[in-house]
What we know:
This protein is an alpha/beta fold. The chain has one domain: D-tyrosyl-tRNA(Tyr) deacylase (D-tyrosyl-trna(Tyr) Deacylase, Chain: A). It has two helices and eight strands; from the N terminus they run βββαβββαββ. Helix 1 (39-51) packs across helix 2. It is globular and about 45 Å long.
Amino acid sequence: xxxxxxxxxxxxxxxxxxxxxRIGKGLLLLLGLEKHDTLADGQRLLSxxxxxxxxxxxxxxxxxxxxxxxxxxxxxxxxxLAGSTDKGLRPSFSSAMAPGLARELYDQLANWLxxxxxxxxxxxxxxxxxxxxxxxxPVTFLLNS
Length: 145
C-alpha cells in the first residue's frame, strides 16, 4: 500500500465538471493499493497518516499531526501509485490490486477513516476525477505499508 500525502491549505475533487468533495486545511491522501495489501495494513498506514507530524507548532517545527490541528483529510484512490516504472517507457500495473478487490478494500478503509477521523472526505473509486489543491509548503511525503 502506498500513500502519498500532501499538506494542503485546501483541496477538492470534481467529477464530470461538478465538485464532489472539498476540504480546508489538512492532508490530501492519494492511496495506491497493491495485490498483497490487507485491511490491517491499511489501518496501520492510515493511523500513521493521522498521527504523522507534518504541521508546524508555535516554533515553526513540524511537530503537529492532522489530529492535533483538527485538520481535514481528503482520501483519493490512485491506482497509478502501484505502477512500476523500472523498465521501458510505459508503466506496468502488474502489482496493482484487481479493481473489484481494490474497491472493496478502499471502501472498508474509507469507512474506517470516517470512524477514526470524522473530518474525512473522499473521492469516488475508479472515477475520472480532477483533483485541485493548494500545497502548503510544499510538503509532500510518500509512505508505504
